[in-house]
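User: Okay, second chain of the day. Same drill as before: sequence in, structure tokens out.
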Amino acid sequence: MEKKLETADQKLFDRKLRGLLNRSIVEQLSGSPEQSLVSLTLGDSRYPRDYTFPTSDEGWTVTELSTDSQRMMRSSTMLAVDCEMVLCEDGTEALVKVCVVDRDLQVKINEYVNPYKTVADYRTEITGIDAESLEGVTRSLADIQKSMKKLLSDGTILVGHSLHNDLQVESFMDFFPYSLYWDMKFESQVPEAKMEKLYLHKIPNNVPKKEISRIIPGEVAIEIKSAKKAQGRYYTAYAVFNSAEEANQAFENIEGTEERDSSGLPQKLVTFQFGKGATASLYVRKMARDDLQCQVPSKKRVFQSEEKFSESKKLKTDQKPVKETTTANFNQVDDQLKEIERLKQELEQKDSQIVTQDKILAKREKKIDELKQELENLQKKLDKLKRKKEKKGSLIN
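Assistant: Same drill. Structure tokens below.
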């Protein structure tokens, strides 16, 4: 028994030590434009918070990273990763699909994953996946981990939207951060039509539409999703209002326990009675976070608790010089990209001018050839007239 414990402790220590060594190697890298972007990522104040994973826990894999830093600095290998998750009835989230493409947009992995759990919400409006999509799927998370491991080499740069959430959900091997990654952040406007809605989910199948209308205050239309009663014990719907302001006000007026869903969006757990005294509950959720009403909320799982959120704020404040330096570096890269784009446009314009000039020259050459031909014809006519005149003169003599 003691020997087994000693072996387990030794494995845990090995994973921790390997992780620290790998990070040390990565942090020394700089070289190509791709690696410069990686350096910017490593210098971001959010990096320690978002990309520090519990790799000592069971289920995580730490791979050994080569110490050949020169080869890593020359690496321009990039893989874009996207994962889709569903909400299970036990309250956890499970991976159901993984897609990986390289920088040439060649698909390397595009597979469904069996969560091996009962699914409560497929989040079809986000994932595009329903119960039928997973019928007959036998691939497991472990299978996907093996496939990913084959794709990764020293210096591989991973690209993704909120990539840390995907890696966290899947316990997706600690070799990801050691392979280097660039986490792409996108912000865009939420369509006004979406802001005029509240999302209702985990509605028990025995609750009729008219009961939902009674729970939601104000002038509202209830849109039952087509997946109603097709997936387990619950269904989902939208409460549609005349404006975003009315939707927000209705959310404030609803009595219930306010919390955050797995994407960090505000929602309320509403308990009510219906029919002949039966008790039920459902969730009423906003379409965007309160602090980002004008932006699209991330569709990935947010894993930081309120405590971590406070710590991240403090970290950003404490590391203001780092943030300012990172912002300056981003601005410099952005300026360089703009200059490249400007030069590219100038080159295209000059190429277009050259093509136009070539066409003009070709037309002029053609005109010259036509004039030459006309001159030759006129010369022939003159020669013919001259001969006639000479012949006529000889006859008179």
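The chain has a mean pLDDT of 72.

User: Thanks, on to the next one.
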